[in-house]
Each structure stands twice: as C-alpha cells, then as structure tokens.
Design a protein that fits this description.
The complex is a heterodimer. Chain A is built from ten helices and twelve strands. Chain A is of the alpha/beta class. A six-stranded mixed sheet of chain A has the order 8-9-10-5-11-12, sandwiched between helices. Chain A has a four-stranded antiparallel sheet with strand order 4-3-6-7, with helices on one face. The longest helix of chain A is centred in the middle third of the chain and has 20 residues. The N terminus of chain A is likely disordered. In chain B, helix 3 packs antiparallel against helix 10 and helix 4 crosses helix 10. Classes of the chains: A alpha/beta, B mainly alpha.
Chain lengths: 277, 354
C-alpha cells in the first residue's frame, strides 16, 4: 500500500514514485536562535512531491518552530529553505503562501465571525482576480468569480462532508469540525505543500481513523505533499512514509516508520534512558 | 416571492431588510413633511440625521468590520464639508442646476476626504489598537486647527487662498470671502434636501454592504478575526485595510458635504473630538459590524436631544442616562436570548422550504 522509501543522491529518503522528480521542499542546515537559545539547529529535511511526512518529537522539541520557520512567521537565522527548488530567503508569510505552502495551527485559528463558506473563500482570495470596484458595483466579474468560488468551496467542504455547515458561523462549530475546516481553508489556497500541526488533537479514535483516510484522499486527489506534526503514534506510523524525529531542536532520527519504531535513540528520547544496573 | 426570499443567502436577506427599512423611513418622512406634521425644529434635523446615518455606517466599516478604533472620523467629515462648500461656490456660475451642483460639490468633498485619508493611512496602518486610536484622534484635531487658519475667497479671476487673514487674499472688488478662518464658512447656499440625504444613505449602504460581501470585505474581516491565520492564507493586511479605511473616509467626506450645505454658515469647531465620539457612540450602541442597527442608533440619538428639550438644563444628563440604560438592556442575556429565538425560528423555517 505504501510506496517504498529509497535514498536519493543527497542521502535523503523519498518515496520511489518521487525519485525522478525534484523534491518539493528541501531544508538545508536550517536554524533559529531566540536570544541565546538555539530553538532549532542543523535541521535538514527533504520532502518528495507527493509524500506524506511526519515530524514528531517530545513536547518542546521545536516542531511547531519548524513550521513557523517554513511559513516565515520566524525568519531563520541560519540555513536555506528551498521550495520547489526556489530559495524562500527574505519572503514574508504571505509570499510563502503564494509560493505554495499552506498550514493549519496547533491552537485553532479560524475566522470565527465568518461563515464556514466564507472562511474557505478567504483562502481562495488570491486566486480571484476581480477588483474592489467590481465588488462594490457588482460588475459581471464579481458574479462570475463568486459563482466559481462558491462551487469550489462546496467541493472542498465535501472532502470532510461539511457542505451542510456552509452557512454556520465558524466559531460555533464543534472542535473536530473546526480542525477539519482549518485543513479545508489551507487547501483552498491551492498549496503544493500542506503543513498540518496536530490535526488529530482532541479527536476520538474513530474520528482519527476518518482523518487518516481523508489525509490520504487529499494527497491522492490534489497530488500534493503533506508534512504533519502529531502525537498520535497510530496515525503517524500508519500514514507517514517518512518520519523525522526532533529533540531539543536537533534531528535525532530520520527514516521509514519501521526504522523509527526500532531506533534506540528515539525510544530513549521518548521514554528516557535505561538505568544501568 | 416569499419562497424566493427564504432561499436567499442570509446575508442577502439581511441587506434587503436594511434597504427596505431606509426606504420605508424615507417614505414616511416625506409624507409627514408634505402633510405638515413635522415641527420646524424636527424638519431642520432631517438632513443632519441623514448625514449622521452615513457617518455611522461608514465608521462601522472601520470600527466594526475592520476592527480598528478610529477617533478622527469627524476630521474626514470636516474636510469633505469645507471642500464641498468651496466647490459649490466655485461652481455657482457654471452649474445653475441646484441638485446637480450639490452632487458635484459633494463628490469634490468625497474625493478630498479620500485624498487626505490616503496621507493619513500610511502611518495609521503601521499601528494597532490604542496607538491607532491616538493617531486618528490627533489627526481630527490637526484638521480642525488647519481649517481654523485657512482663508478662501473668490472673485472674477478664481479662487484665492491665504493662511493669514481675509485682507491678504488680494481679491478684486467683486471678491467674496468663502472661508474666514475661525469664523468658518459663511454665505453657504442651502442645497441639501431630504431626498439628497436619502439617496446618499442608499449609496452608502450599497457601497458598504457590497464591500462587506465581496472578497475585499471577507479579507478585512478575516484580518480582524485572526491576523496570523489571514496572513497564512496570503491576505495582505496593508492592502485590504487601506481599501476599507479610504472607502470609509470618502463616505464621510460625502456626508460632510451634505451636512455643510444644510446650513448658511458652518464652523470647523463643529467637527471636533466630541463629534467623532458621538459617531462612535452610534456605532457602539447599534452594535459593532451591525449596519442596520447603527442606522437606527444614529437617527434615534440625533433626535433624542431634541425630544429632551423640555428637561432644559438637565438635557444632556438625561441623554447620558438613556444611553447607559439602553446599553445595559441591550447587553442583557435575557434580551439577547429573546431575539436569538426569533433568528433560530426563521432559519429552520427557511430550511424546511429548501
């Protein structure tokens, strides 16, 4: 079911179907320091075009910091991020999104006073071309593009079976639906790399199973790469093709789920060192 | 028709209700006016009410929709008012048609208010929260003080400007002073009518409601609700906030033009900090982001001091007490639940037919 991971010349692991293509994301010696604290150091990661990759590690390891570096919420103090071969140096959050990275947040950040449909349409904003005047005077461009946007919003919402909630306020949705809506909103920006920050947090096992199916479905339909942070090991080991383990801002292991599960360094990071008798 | 109304998006239905309310109010007022049912003091307030309604709706775009507190909205009204008055005088000989001249000079007022807001918007949008409020407050005061020192006159050769006094304008013998510094604008022709005010309200509503329900409006509200998330989906804060801020200022300029041309003379002092706060009170009382109720609040609070005239010296005290009571009651959970019930019923009724 999962494609096999093979090493490519740079030594990184990517699914074999992506070997011939250039990777969508390459982080080279990425690092950031806050004051004297090295939050992330020497972070190297390569993600293939259609790979589902996982970023795991104990609390405070710097996983979300990596996401914030990729989306330029923080500017990296060291290293390079290549998105589709292009250096993202000096780009803003907005420009990185236009270049193809979309994300969700660990603590949900929806536009709570907007409807579910409008939340998704905000994600499509940059794909729309009509200007303020067509909006105010309702010129033909407005009607044409809004109609397309409505249809596409409904299509995207149907991934999670949320079409019926389109008119509800985003803030009034139950927790799980809010998490799903964040994914839909990120997808609406038409990304080539989707970053999911703890997508299964607060979900029950059946919801998590459904989410796993949907993440795979998203990858297959949109042919995009997914990088996810998750503490639910069942989810990570089941859907991720490549896993990167962080601890204290350093990568301590990289590889396929099987490799990671049997890696002594990873076990030590999670469970602590066995006391020598 | 009824089923069609129910099938409409809730936002569209709400917009139509707002337009309908304004049209109904206009028809009633026009009927009462022709029937001679209005007292002369109330008659004189019709145009100011229209101007204040436009001010409240346009400020709601900044405060309610964009979520930034602006305390200098009267400044834009002031710019619009004085430029419109000068434009109306300058056009007196070329455009003889009264309503047309009113529209043209109001447009000049709107354009100038928009231009001034373009200058203000650059420093303002670098700030947020309290700091933005302080800068807009200062802006309102600066505009008031500048207009207090400007002298404008007109003679056969055209307009003359001076920052010193009326004598230094250097006009020909047929010259007429239009703006006399601290004495304000004098000799204004009364061009504003209730119909003009009504049409301006309808224009303002169309602009603001259509703005809100377009991609620019969604982007502005997204930035208000969660700036970080909005940036993560590629929304540029500066660009969209600027659109909302300038649109709001242009509408305030138009309202200023309408307001000024209802009086024979007008002072810069009229558009001071108190006026900005008064407009903010309309918005807060009506509800942030609630366009329809800010119209009602603006109309009610403009008429209220007039109705309280019998309390003589205690008028403003009673006004304040009424304001506090209304705020307390409208914030009451029981009251809110009562109205929420209506909304819920209407929603389910709509679903059944669909």
């Amino acid at each position: 079911m999962f494609s096999k991971l093979v090493p490519i010349p740079s030594g990184a692991m990517v699914p074999d179907r992506d070997v011939d293509k250039s990777p969508i994301l390459e982080c080279i010696n990425l690092g950031v320091t806050f004051g004297g604290l090295k939050a992330v150091e020497n972070f190297n990661l390569t993600i293939g075009r259609t790979e589902i990759a996982g970023l795991i590690g104990p609390n405070g390891a710097g996983k979300t910091t990596v996401f914030n570096l990729l989306t330029k919420v923080y500017q990296p103090t060291k290293g390079t991020i290549l998105l589709d071969g292009n250096d993202t140096h000096g780009m803003s959050t907005i420009q990185v999104n236009r270049a193809g990275i979309a994300r969700t947040f660990q603590n949900i950040r929806l536009f709570t006073d907007l409807t579910v449909e409008d939340n998704v349409k905000v994600g499509m904003n940059n794909a729309m071309g009509y200007n303020m005047w067509s909006g105010i005077f309702r010129l033909p461009g407005f009607w044409k593009e809004e109609k397309v946007a409505h249809q596409r919003a409904m299509e995207l919402l149907s991934i999670f079976d949320m079409q019926d909630l389109a008119d509800a306020k985003a803030g009034s949705l139950p927790y799980g639906a809010q998490r799903r809506l964040e994914i839909v909103r990120a997808l609406a920006t038409n990304p080539s790399l989707l970053l999911l920050d703890e997508p299964a947090a607060g979900m029950n096992p059946s919801e998590t199973a459904e989410l796993m199916e949907n993440i795979r479905k998203i990858r297959d339909t949109f042919q995009i790469a997914v990088l996810l942070i998750e503490h639910d090991m069942n989810l990570v080991m089941n859907i991720c093709e490549g896993i990167c383990v962080l601890n204290f801002g350093q990568v301590i292991a990289k590889g396929s789920p099987e490799d990671i599960q049997s890696n002594p360094t990873v076990i030590e990071a999670y469970l602590g060192k066995k006391k020598e008798a | 028709m009824a089923t069609k109304l129910k099938r409409m998006a809730p936002s569209t239905r709400s917009s139509f209700l707002t337009y309908g309310m304004v049209i109904a109010a206009y028809v009633v007022m026009q009927a009462m006016l022709s029937g001679g049912l209005l007292t002369s003091s109330l008659k004189g307030m019709l145009v100011p009410i229209c101007a204040y309604v436009v001010m409240a709706v346009s400020l709601n775009l900044t405060v309610g929709i964009m979520g930034e507190l602006s305390l200098g909205h009267a400044g834009f009204m002031s710019v619009g008012a004085f430029t419109a008055v000068i434009a109306a005088a300058a056009l007196q000989n070329t455009v003889s048609n009264g309503p047309l001249r009113l529209v043209m000079s109001m447009a000049v007022g709107g354009v100038f208010a928009g231009l001034v807001s373009l200058i203000v918007v650059v420093p303002v949008l670098r700030l947020r929260g309290d700091y933005l409020a302080i800068v807009t407050l200062a802006f309102g005061e600066i505009i008031k003080n500048i207009i207090n020192c400007v002298y404008v006159g007109m003679d056969g050769t055209g307009l003359h400007f001076s920052m010193k006094d009326a004598a230094s304008l250097g006009m020909a013998a047929d010259g007429k002073v239009l703006l006399q510094g601290p004495m304000g604008a004098v000799g204004i022709q009364k061009l504003s009518t209730l119909t003009a005010g009504f049409l301006l309200i309808m224009l303002t509503l169309a602009v603001v409601l259509n703005f809100i329900h377009s991609r620019a409006g969604r982007a502005v509200m997204a930035l208000r609700d969660n700036r970080i998330a909005a940036e993560s989906v590629g929304i540029s804060p500066t660009r969209y906030k600027m659109m909302a801020f300038v649109t709001s200022a242009v509408l305030a300029g138009l309202a200023g033009g309408l307001y000024a041309m209802n009086f024979s003379s007008i002072l810069a002092k009229k558009f001071d900090f108190n006026t900005s706060i008064l407009i903010l009170v309309f918005v807060v009382l009506g509800g942030m982001g609630n366009i329809r109720c800010s119209i009602i609040a603006a109309a009610a609070l403009t008429v209220l001091p007039e109705l309280l005239r019998q309390f003589a010296d205690y008028r403003m005290l009673v006004y304040a007490i009424v304001l506090i009571l209304v705020m307390i009651f409208t914030n009451n959970p029981a009251y809110k639940a009562f109205f929420a019930r209506f909304r819920f019923r209407r929603k389910t009724a709509g679903k059944e037919t669909a």
